[in-house]
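Support case: user asked for a sample of complex input and structure output to validate their parser. Sending the pair below.
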Amino acid sequence: MELDELKAAWRDLDRRLERSESVQSDWRRELALDRTRTALRRWLWLPGSELAVSVLAAWFAGGYLAGHAGAALASPPGALPALVLWGLGVAGIVAGVRQIVAVASIDYAAPVLAIQRRLIEARRLRLRSARASLLAWLPLWPVCAVLAVQWAFGFGSYRQFAPAWLVANVATGVVLDLVLVWLARRYGQALARGRVLRRLSDSIAGHGLVATTAQLDELARFGRE
Amino acid sequence: MTDTPLQQRFEARLREHRGIILKVASVYAAGAEDRRDLAQEISLQLWRAFPGYDAAKAKFSTWLYRIALNVAISQRRRESASPAACLESLAPHHLDTIGGGQGIAEPDERLAALYRFIGELDALNRALVLLYLEDKRYAEIAEVLGISETNVATKLGRIKQTLRGRMAGATSTTGA
């Protein structure tokens, strides 16, 4: 059978579909249920919460730095924890805004290849951001702890923390991150029970990122002659 | 509640082109319920985009194919986690569910072959073949998919060759 011969079968299918299946009234019911918007809201929930947390972090750290500008200039190491948190907050804001803009600006009426690429890129952006947010806290919690102590007991209280303690904890966090990624890649599928744990494990392992890279490669191949 | 002129225009257009939505849904969704869900999601997305449709920029059918295919491909991708399982293949009983769940009265080998063939293609090549089967010109296929006309011709040439090879293989196996 040639591809052209399949056209006859296709026309036959067309007639059968026309006779039997309806679309006409269903879109109104769907509009009332508003499932697409619900799905979009669900999709935006994660970047939205990341954005909210990042705004709070940047606002708190920025405010703290502004309030202790004199002390920070006199003793720059004491400003480091607030600077790190402020940087994380700003990075989170940029990532959150980029994700929301990427999804909100998708126009389904654009050519298929371009829109599919943008959808996959938006998904990759979300996966990267979620993974970074998950993994950042293990090495950075000591920095946040120092800032919390500074906020509660005064700017100079950072001196209570020995630099070696800070370095050791950050380094331990980095090592734990590496171990977590290894465990998630090696045993995640077998150990993670339930949807939430499975997603968490996939996110740490970066499985989704690998999948999106493969999908983008597939699109690039299709776009090439 | 009475319909607005925009709703009336949309309904008329939808009635005129409903075959496109049904065919896209039949190519990307395997069961009757999935097909109905997909057709509904396409219709809804069309309704949302309809106020922005500009006849000077694209033919209505081109605009409709783009939205329908984008919705179908992205929905299929959302539903599958791994790239390998990116697209559910059309099950052998796919034809049984067409026709409002009544199935197709008389067995049709051509239709079965068509679905076997389409079912083996990935999401983008399914779109390409669907547009080809719809008798669209290469220029319009290129416009819908966002690739060059030469690329369309090359890909269709390859698909035809694969199909010919498979048929020749099947003939030699069964004819021997």
